[in-house]
Amino acid sequence: MTDKDNALFTTNRQPPNLRSSLADTLMAQIESGDLKPGQRLPTEQAIMVATGVSRTIVREALATLRAKGLITTHQGLGAFVSNDPNPRSFSIIPNDLQSIDEVLRVLELRIGVEYEAAGLAALRRTPEDIERMQDRLDALDTALEKGGYGAQEDYAFHRSILVATQNSYYSRLFDTFGDIMVPRQWARLDKMTSFERKRHAARMRREHHAIFAAIRDGNEAAARRAIRTHLSKSAARFEELRDATEPS
Q1: How open is the CA angle 149-155-160, to the nearest 5 degrees?
Q2: Is 64 exposed, middle or buried (0-12, 13-18, 19+ CB in 10 A)?
Q3: Are residues 63 and 112 in the same domain?
């Protein structure tokens, strides 16, 4: 490993969520051209020495890059930057959501996309769209009433909003991610008391019903406001959870 390689990696000495930090560092180096197409990456041992992280962290970071198509591995030879490392499609994979900070970044993306989609849906929804949204909302209500996470039902309801835009690119974007856009592994319902779970379910139902009512009534401004309020409150809850679980 050259001095230049060491310089690239030593900036990665950050404590929380090391796998994500290392993967982000490597991706930035590939995207900037510091690591060029076809270039062989340093060995796992060399990266460990340069960054101070464990072998497990290194392997998980490399697995993330492989999943994104940024690197390829060859038995006995090591890992290489892909000859065409620029991704042709954007995706979010489960390994991307290893911390609450990453969940918050996804919520920021969702706010941008769904804010516009909710407004368009209010203007363009058809009777069939309203019926579909009502069915998805009923399924979500049932899941929450039973004390479940309702992640799949939540995803299906939000996707029905995107379908109602009459712009297939919105729903196709969500289909790229699947229900990972509703990161239930961080909801921590199992840590809540019975009262807290009921309060959480009531809040979720209230926020989703407000979104549906605005779109059903054709109120563009209210639809945008309701979806932004819902996702912003979700982000605020995740921030509270992060602050409560971070070591003092």
Answers
A1: 140
A2: buried
A3: no
Residue partners of 97: CB distance under 8 A and separation at least 6 = 103, 106, 180, 183, 185, 186
Q: Are residues 103 and 207 in the same domain?
A: yes
Q: What is the pLDDT of residues 115-158, one digit of tens each?
A: 999 999 999 999 999 999 999 999 999 998 887 778 889 989 99
Question: By percentage, how much of the chain surpasses pLDDT 90?
Answer: 34
Q: Measured in Å, how far apart are the chain's first and last C-alpha atoms? A: 37
Range of the domain at 220: 98-243
Helices 151-163/100-124 angle, 10° precision:
40
d(CA 13, CA 11): 6
Q: Which residues pair with 72 in a beta bridge?
A: 80
* pLDDT single digits (tens) 37-86: 899 999 999 999 988 889 888 888 888 888 778 888 887 888 999 887 65
Amino acid residing at 1:
M
CATH number at residue 219: 1.20.120.530
Q: Is 126 helix (H, G, I), strand (E, B) or coil?
A: coil
Contacts of 173 (CB under 8 A, 6+ apart): 113, 162
Q: How many domains does the chain have?
A: 2
CB 47 within 8 A of CB 9: yes
13, pLDDT greater than 50: no
Does one domain contain both 78 and 104?
Answer: no
